Amino acid sequence: MQGRSTAIPRTEGPHIVAIGGGTGLSTMLRGLKDYTENITAIVTVADDGGGSGVLRQELGMPPPGDIRNCLVALANAEPLMSDLMNYRFSEGSLAGQSFGNLFLAALNALSPSFDEAVSRMSEVLAITGRVLPVTTADVQLVAELEDGSSVVGESKIFKCKKEKNCRIRRVHLLPERPYALCDALDAITRADMIVFGPGSLYTSIIPNFLVGGIVDALRASRAMKVYVCNIMTQEGETEGYTAADHIRALFSHSYEGLFNICVVNSAPISRELCALYREEGAQPIECSEKECAALGVEVVRRPLSIVRGKLVRHDAPELARVLLQLFRERSVRMSDGRYITE
Q: Is the entire prediction scored with pTM above 0.85?
């Protein structure tokens, strides 16, 4: 076996599966591709709002937005191509729609399946690794609230939860347990490390667990599993949640012990920014190591935040460095290239 300090070429880097959706997942992918070429992003397809929702409704295709963001994050094409994929029309009937979404929609019309369209777009952008929809089924996300009411549609959850002023008890998909993409299950089986998040708890991460076969594959996997907790709570979804609350929700929608490491931000957030977030009902996520330990989860605190304008985001390079450092510290690379987690 080789020592942990040995530099590993990106082509021989660990097989990392990142599961989630939204901007959090794509941010993390930008950092990870500097360490390994063996990346698979498994992305939720429950979104039904914005430009993605329009294409989904009018063309009957899975929502392309989160997929597009991940493809662009892993792209090795010229910067102009990435800018083009992210270009959003501001006028006319296409107002609010991104070129990348339309491009993927066109490829979907020319391809035998949505996952094949994603694969073809991956070739155009010369991405590092792979991006996979968790399923190609037409699914709707349903949220059940603590007052007994429920709401259908990912884009409607925010407003309904705010009006009801109570927590989300559980979410599920319609139809129940659609089949997972076989390539997604295979990626989980072969993974050396599986990372959940960062991203919206109920609308980006958990929907992936609700797809048939995913939880069984995760349970059978011997990969190192890590949850990257959000830096701030999210208005209309996780107001007042602690890190332990996030962990409980993830476990209740999958299984106890899904992961045993939770990475949280330790960098302070300025009073000015906290005040701005409080106006929207959000705040820095509090984390009790004792409470997380009672759930069987070790907390790893690292300074991971960066400020972009008036928003607090994960620092992509630093988050990737921390994740790969954890992996190197807790796994051994065998002479045949396999990794064994200790």
A: yes
